[in-house]
Every structure is written in structure tokens, then in C-alpha cells.
Amino acid sequence: MSAADLAGWSNAAVYAAMVVLTFSMIAFAATFSARGNRVSTDARKTPVTVGVGADSAPSVRVDPAASGQPTTAPPIDERGRRAGNVGLSLAWLGFGLLLLGAVLRGVWAGRVPWGNMYEYSLSSAVAILGVYLFMSLRRDLRWLGVFATGATLLTVGLAVTVLYTEAAQLVPALTSWWLVIHVSAAIISGGAFTIAAGLTGLYLWRERAERRGRVSGAVARLPQAVKLDTMAYRILAFAFPLWTFAVIAGAIWAENAWGRYWGWDPKETWAFITWVIYAGYLHARATAGWRGRRAAYIAILGWVSFLINYFGVNLFVNSLHSYAGV
Amino acid sequence: MGKTGRAMSTPPASAESPVEGRLIDPASTPPSGPGQASGSAGALPPLGAGGFARWAWRQLTSMRTALILLFALAVAAIPGSVLPQRGIDPILVREWIEGAPTWGPILDRLGFFDVYAAPWFAAIYLLLFISVIGCVLPRTGVHIKALRTPPPRAPRRLSRMAHFRTWTTSPETPGAQTSAAPASAASVLDDVEADLRRRRWRVARGVDDSAAGEQPSGWVSAEKGYARETGNLLFHAALIVLLIAVGYGAVFGWRGNVIVREGNGFSNTLTQYDAWGGGRLASPDGLPPFSFTLEEFRVEFERSDTERGSPRLFEAEVTARAEPGAPEVTEVIRVNEPIAFDGAKVFLVGHGYAPQIEVRDADGRLVFDDAVVVLPQDGNQTSIGVVKVPDALPQLGFQMLFLPTAAVDDVRGPFSSFPDADDPAIFASAWVGDLGLDDGVPQSVYRLVTDAMSQVGLEALRPGQTWDLPDGIGSVSFTGWQRWASFQIAHDPGKEPALIASGLALIGLMMSLYVKRRRVWVRAADGPNGVTIEVAGLARTDEADLAEDVEQVAGVAGAPEGKSGPGQDSGESLGEDSGMMDGQNRTGGRR
């Protein structure tokens, strides 16, 4: 197989993944919209009245909608369950295709596929979907599928439309083992940040519904707010040390390549800002008056800062990290 | 340690969870010494200097303040990524200030072009670190005390716990895992205690006070996961060490830049540097006495259409001596491969061209013959530089545009279309008059001061060509070119401690996030129908796998098949699940 063939196969795999993931997202969305089922209607009606009748002060920890539920799984009817299974299967297929696309790209270029922003984005998409699918091995996360596949599709879409670059060799500054260590840690933590941000967004939605005692419709398909909050925390408890490691590895590399381990290059600055915000999130979770919603907003802010670091600094700022190739 | 200590010594008045409030807080945070400050941290400062100081200290070391300082730090870091910074690009800073006559000087005075050295930035991180120290120190004391104290006695009502099970052994169904029938509560507790100790739990054993006529019941109380707090303290302490290491490196370290042309040498003394900067206590006289000669600079660029012009190879071959008289060694410096001499590292940071220029005066006398370093302006190495010929009469000056691969565009004028020297050309502009070198004002070697000069012509030159200047005032020849490489030479004694500190911080961080602090209790009482056993567990941080712990202990105690569930009136199933700072210590009465 010639190099040009590999390039073609890589792109074909990525496009196929986009098609598959689109169907996956539609299937996941169907789990939300397939409605009008008596089981779930009952499940959401009764507990709400209980919650109102209890006349208790609004509480984050007590979930009126789900307190009557024996399981923590959100109420999803049979049709929705089937649609979710289809979505999950397609997501695995899409993940395989994306991974194949990234690997072929690397084989084509004869190096790790992290030489420009197209390749970073492709790998980030793999990371986002990978984090989601890995988590879904252990628990039922079909309700998160729309977000996970949506975020993945958006990332791949940006990659193929705006950021596409032909594969080329690495510039000398990138030919180092630290590329593999530093970039893989950054990309995986980015995927985890994204999934956590999705969970946090869903938490804020669900929490508001619970606070107002109106847990109905799509929001009733979500787990209790307190569960969403815990899940987001667990992912960030994984992503934050990994991000810390990525920053340290980057510093070691920078010392080797540029002669200083920290120079307040815009990329470094925003990595620092992102780190500080997520550190704030972890502290806020342990501080009275900051738990719950406020901590959630901080987590979202951390993700925004991560995005600024990824897109903003690569594309719009003159930085030592400007390897976008666009 | 006013507030922190006080908060830890006092059980929260209205704890969210009665379980945690009553059983966990006083236990895990044993009463600290007497004489703690009183009063709510949020209240107005009491009168008197001492009272105010205590109040201020409490405010500073509160979690809320730490959070606010964290965000202040994040926000304060932003302008440095938006505005040009002196430490990175001083020329851009000057242009920015010139371009914004109103705001430029104001921002400059406020330190916005050197954010990370600005006093307000330093104020934020120093306050933050004082706040961290104010938290870590007292908590370390508390933690050490906790490590020496056995777990507290088992709570009265284990059934309140998130994980709970109870059963009574009947004489004919002895416990599955004990070898003999559990004759007594004591033997069950013995087994449990031995098992827990073997699995490195911290264990306490005791007997309940019994009501009249009742058989006294015995209990085992065990705790595990102290490493969570150890990690938490390690993380914060390591960050403090990191800051000190960074500061140490900044004070004792130095860094310089130098451009070396092919065939030329460099020896590590202050005068040889183009730019040198050192910390307050760095000594420019004691630089390691190495030297090197740039033998060859090899460079390759991408020639295919994809990423055309991107660098593919930079290599500086040098012959170096660690000190005068030392044997000469040949080394290759690459972008990611610096070479080191006695704590100083030599990094390859840039490259460019140096066209060879000859200038003759009106009499045909050679008054200038040198390779002139020109500075690249873009990725294709369109470079500019100047030649100053003070020995000519009148003095001559040339502004040069050096193009390694010359191209001319109607709009852009002359430019370089490829970074390698495929078709080099110089576009020179000749000036005649006074170079201004005798005024005593230092001049840049890359800039021609034309105040007292007049332009006499423009000409394009290819290698080997000579331009006879108008009016017979002289001639200039472009005889060839060579490459130069720029090196950064740096010494940072703080970087190894900084690396160790960051490694420790990472380890501490992971311990503080992943180690689960949890307690299990077993109570056993002899009764007429057998031994009644209760097993319960409580996670202080996370509910995960506590059921496993409880099941394991229950198994050792001889429990029948089954699962533990939440106790009958357990108020809270989710644990604290907090981040690095477990809330109650810092927030105490204000929760």
C-alpha cells in the first residue's frame, strides 16, 4: 500500500466515522425523545407530588423526582432503551473508525499523529469518545450519548473542514519523545474535561429542574443531580492530576527545547489558568456555600479556559506552541 | 492558627449530617490545645491590634479567601497572554506602547507588559501561599496527632450508618470462616481485630458501658486511609517548595543569548553575549569557562508542497572545550538536544544568514570586509540588517534586505519565497553622512541612525556582484554568505528542586484524590440465643467500595450470606466526597 493510499484510507475512515457517529447521535437522541410511555410518566409524576407535599426546603441532595425510584438509572422506556443500545453500538463502531483514521494517519506520516492541529483534533475526538465509552463499560450512560457523540462530531467536523492539513514531517522542535508523553496526557485530559463539562452542564439543568420541582420531559431521563455531580467530580479527579502531569511534562520538554521550563508563553499561561481554575473547583467542592452549583460553574469555566488554550492560542495568538499548520 | 484550630476543635453546631457531625468530626480532629480564638470568622473584627491580627489571619487562611485568591491568580495571568510581554518580545512591547499613546504608558506603568514580574501579581501568589501555609501547618499538627491516636470508640447506634448489617449466630450454625463455633463475642472480635490489623487498618477495641442487667457488648473500631490527608498536606507543601525553587532559580540563575556565525567561536564570558540577564545574586564573573566554535550549521526545509518551507532539520556542529586547556570535543546541538557544561546548558534557539560584504572607499581601499548578521523577519527568512562603515570618508551606511530565495511581487515588493538559500539576493540602500557613532549614545548594530545621513541609491545584488556607488564615493560587493546560529545559554539552579517538588505535588495530589478514608465498626454481644453481631462502615470521602470493606469484615465475623444495605435510619449515604481540602476543617462553623 502506498503512502497516498494510506492517506486516502485514513480520510475515508474519518468520514465513515462521522457518518456512523451521526446515526449514533440520532439514536441516542431518540432515547430522550421516545416519550409517552406510561411507565416513565408514572415514575416522574408520583415522586414530584411527594416532593412538593413534603414541603421541605429545596435541597441539592434530596431528589424529589427520583426518591421513589428504587434504582439510580433514569427512567427510560423499552423503545428508548433499544435506541440507546443502537446508539452505543454505533458509537463503538465510530470510535474504532476514528482510531483507525488516526493510526493510519500516523503510519502515513511515519510518526505519532500529533504534528498539527488537524491531528490533535482527530486525537481529541478519539479521547472524548474514548473516555465516554470507557465509562459506559461500567455503568449505563446512554443518556450522556448525545453529548458525547455530539462533542466528538463537532471536534472531528472542525478538524476535517477548518483544520485539515496534509500530513508532513515534524518540525525539529517537535521531534522528541516528550511529544508522545506531553501531548497524549494533554489530549486525554482534554477528552475527560469535555465529558466532565457535559456532565456538569447536565447537572446544572437537572439541578434547576429539581430545585423548581419540575422534573419532567427529557430532564427526567437524567440521573439525579447529586449523581451527575459525583460523576463529573470523579472524571475531574482523574483529569486534573493528568493535566498536572501534562503541564509538568511540558515544562521538562520546554527546558530541553527552549532552555527554560516555564516562560509564560501564552500556551503555558492558559495551561496554568486552566489548572488554577480546576484546582479552584476541587477546593470549592469542599467549601461551604460553594458546593453544587457554584462549583459546577467553576468546572465549566475550567473547560472554557481549556478551549481557549486549545483553539485560541493555537490559531490566534503568536505562541511558541503555534503548530496548527493551518 | 486561630480559626483553623478553633474550627477543628469544635464540632459544627449545625452539621449537615448528624452522622458526620457527631461521630466523625470530633474523632478525626481531636481537640487541639486550649486558648483558641473565639468568635465567628465572618464577624467584624474585634477591637484591639491583637484581635485584628487574629481576625485578619483567620480571614487569610480561610478556604473562601484561598478560593478568591486562586481566581484572582487565574484572572491576573490573562493579560500576559494577550498583551506582548517584555520578557518574551521587548520590541513588540515598544511598538505596542508607541501605537497606543494614551493607554500604552498607563498599562506600562501598571506592569501590564511584564505581568509575571508585576508587584500585584506577586502580591496575589504570595498571599495565596501564606494562606496555604496557614492552612497546612496547623493541619499537619492535627494530622500527626491523629496518626498517633487510635480510632474513637464505636458509636452507639451502628444502624445509622450507610453500610450496616446485623445477625445473630445460632448455636447450630456457626460462623462460616471461624474454625470453631463462635463461642463468644470476644472471639468474634478477636478474629476481626486480627484480620483488620493484618490488612493494616488502625484498630481500637473496647467494651460498651452496659445498662443494668445487660450483657456488656464489645466493639472493634477501625480506620484506614490516613494517606489521603498525608497526600493533601504533601501536595500543598510541595507547591510551597516549588515556589521557593522557582524563586531560588530566578535569584541565582542567569541566561544569555548569543549569535555565532559559522567558523566563529564563543567563550563564556559576559562580554561575548549579545544579551545577558541574571538574577539578583547571580555572579557574571563566575560563569563556567567553557568555549565552543560553530563548525557548521546544517538546516533542511520541507520542499514538497505540503507545509513547504517548514523546517525539517536544524543541527549545529560545534567543537567545544569545557575549560581552557581541556580536550576539544565535537558535539552536535539540536533543537531538543542541548549540551551542558558545569550546570550551564547551551540550547540551539535560532538561525539565520550572514551575507559577506566588502566595502571600498573612493580610493578603492578595502574599509569593510565581514559577514554581516541579518535578522530573519518571517518564516522564509526575509532578513534585514545594516552595514556601518565608520572608516570610510565620508562615513557610509547600508540598510540591507537579504532574501535567501529572492522573489519580487508588485504588491509586497521584494521578499523571500523559501527559507533555504536557493537564489540569494540583497536589496541594499546606501546612505552617506555621519553614522553618529561618536556621540557616545549606544546604537543597535541592527539599526542605522540616518538622522545625519542622506540616501544615495538603491540596488539589488546577487552573490559576486559589485555596486559602484554614485559620485565615485566607493563600492559595495556581495561576495557570499554563511549561516549563523543563535544559542541560549542558561543556568537555573532551581530547576531540579522544582522538578522534584512538582513530582511530589503530583504524588500528593493523587493520594489526596484517590485514597479513601473510611471506618468500619463491629459490635458483638453475647446473648441467650447466640452472639449478636453488628457491622457497619462509613466513608468519609466517597461511598465507593465501602460495601466491600463491610462485607469483608462481616465475612471474618462469620456473617451468613447476604449483602449490607443502608442502615435503617442512615441520614446520608453519600460521603463528603470532597476535593483536596476536606471541608470541615477549613470552613468549620461557617458551613
The DSSP helix count of chain A reads 9
Residue share in β-strands of chain A: under 5%
Structural class of chain B: alpha+beta
Number of structural units classed as domains of chain A: 2
Strand tally of chain A, please?
Answer: 0
Low-confidence regions of chain A:
36-73
Structure report:
The complex is a heterodimer of chains A (326) and B (591). Chain A is mostly helical and 326 residues long. Chain A has 2 domains: 129 residues, Up-down Bundle (Four Helix Bundle (Hemerythrin (Met), subunit A)), CATH 1.20.120; 152 residues, no CATH class. Chain A contains 9 helices and no strands. By secondary structure, chain B is α+β, with helices and mostly antiparallel strands. Chain B folds into 4 domains: 133 residues, no CATH class; 121 residues, 2-Layer Sandwich (TATA-Binding Protein), CATH 3.30.310; 129 residues, no CATH class; 130 residues, no CATH class. Helix content of chain B is 29%, strand content 30%. In chain B, strands 4, 6, 10, 11, 12, 20 and 21 form a 7-stranded antiparallel beta sheet that branches. A 5-stranded antiparallel beta sheet of chain B has the order 1-23-22-3-2, covered by helices on one side. In chain B, strand 11 and strand 12 form a beta hairpin. In chain B, helix 4 packs antiparallel against helix 8. The two termini of chain B are 19 Å apart. The N terminus and C terminus of chain B are likely disordered. Chains A and B meet through helix 7 and helix 8 of A and helix 4, strand 8, strand 11, strand 21 and helix 11 of B.
